[in-house]
Specification:
230 residues, alpha+beta, Peptide Methionine Sulfoxide Reductase, Chain A, 6-stranded mixed β-sheet, two-stranded antiparallel sheet, 8 strands, globular
Length: 230
């Protein structure tokens, strides 16, 4: 469990350094609020479920963010983007499977659009300018990626990345991978809803809860209370 041990090491360092205190916590991953998408922001006229997969570092925080977004029906932590069938957490943590820690988001397109989900992902869920890492977590399994399920989703994602680049939203280049979703493997049960079930964990308090707080502050009309227990 190299990945888990690394996070435990991070927790120990955080506590030792005093970063656990709110006054020293880092801001949410996305330093900038990304603009509203010019493509893919129109709501469907009738209920329609869609699924897309986001990867942006440790899946605990990404899942926590989307579990608080209105219109999201489920957010499942898991693995995508690699070649190994049914990988374990230990397999993915080795960095040799090609998989990224990911979150499968199922949403009602009549309640929240893909464009809005992208805005959230690129604003508060992660930093799209960090290559093969997010914060203290390093490796290709922590890369920034969007795995699309349909060509229409790909078009929306590509257009949004171009929009962000043209707007110079970030000081550094965006390194997000865009790829078709070949398979998604749900992570082990103990990883599901981890951030909301362990809010007192120093790692969660330092790196993940600020993302949820940023969602509530920057997107108040999208924010809802935790629904992970459903």
């Amino acid at each position: 469990m190299a990945g888990m041990m690394a996070r435990l090491g991070t927790i120990a360092a955080v506590v030792a350094g005093g970063a656990y205190w709110a006054s020293a916590r880092p801001a949410a991953a996305g330093a900038a609020t990304a603009p509203m998408a010019t493509m893919g922001s129109t709501l469907a006229t009738s209920p329609r479920d869609e699924t897309i997969v986001f990867a942006g570092g440790c899946f605990w925080g990404v899942q926590a963010v989307f579990e608080h977004v209105r219109g999201v029906k489920s957010a499942v932590s898991g693995y995508a983007g690699g070649t190994m069938t049914s990988p374990s957490y230990e397999d993915v943590s080795s960095g040799t499977t090609g998989h990224a820690e990911s979150v499968q988001v199922t949403f009602d397109a009549s309640e929240v659009s893909l464009g809005t989900l992208l805005q959230v992902f690129f604003s508060v869920a992660h930093d799209p300018t960090q290559k093969d890492r997010q914060g203290p977590d390093v490796g290709t399994q922590y890369r920034s990626a969007v795995f699309y399920a349909t060509d229409a989703q790909r078009d929306v994602v590509d257009a949004y990345l171009k929009q962000l680049t043209n707007a110079k939203t970030y000081a550094r280049p965006i390194v997000t991978q865009v790829a078709p979703l070949r398979a998604f493997y749900p992570a082990e049960a103990y990883h599901q809803h981890y951030a909301m079930l362990h809010p007192d964990s120093p790692y969660i308090a330092t790196y993940d809860l600020p993302k949820v707080a940023a969602l509530k502050t920057r997107f108040p009309t999208l924010y809802r209370e935790d629904v992970s227990a459903r």
